[in-house]
Amino acid sequence: MPLQDRIQQVEQRIAAACQRSGRLREDINVIAVTKYVSLETTVSAYKSGLLHLGENRWQDAEEKWVALSGKDRSVPEDVPTWHFIGSLQTNKAKDVVGKFSYIHSLDRLSLAEAIHKKASQLSIIVPCFIQVNVSGEMSKHGMEPEELSGFIDALQAFPSLQPIGLMTMAPYESKPEETRLVFRALRELRDVIQRDSAYGSGIKHLSMGMSNDFDVAIEEGATWIRLGSILVGKEEE
Q: Could you report the per-residue pLDDT of 138-157, keeping only the tens digit for each?
């Protein structure tokens, strides 16, 4: 399916989910996940108006980042906003900070320290989503929900890092409706943090929902959805 048709279909589904849940379209941000597509397709996605791009490994993203955002970029337009959405090794934080505007996978203090260290060197503040393993799956990264409050308080020691929201990945379900309780639990967790944590008032966003289940995620409060195959396709394994 042509890219523009994919974009149009996704927009129609977002609008429908917003209508069902009484939300505004402008409150939903779309990240085009380009990790399974070529540089050419990534450039086409950006030129088609998908201004937020998501990658989960620097070694896979580097060629695309250089072409679209590097000093000698081959695409002369304004640069996209890059989101790091994969699990981030502590020793790889230095490669990501300063290139990716948002990190969606903060889940431990050692990583927070590494992000803060590099951000301090660059004199920037990095907005981060805290990854929470709401579903309890062993295969999923993220902290346990009961660890979240103490973790957020501890982040005050790293002022070059700004927690702005929570992120989770729901199990893949053949019936997307079965993911609803996972997304609802993350939203409720965010609401508790905002109410009870002195440092939680800035944690407003919810990064949740992917190609298989983004409609449900929007209905449950997602402010960022991460869309790969349904939006930009998949070209390689």
A: 777 899 999 999 999 999 99
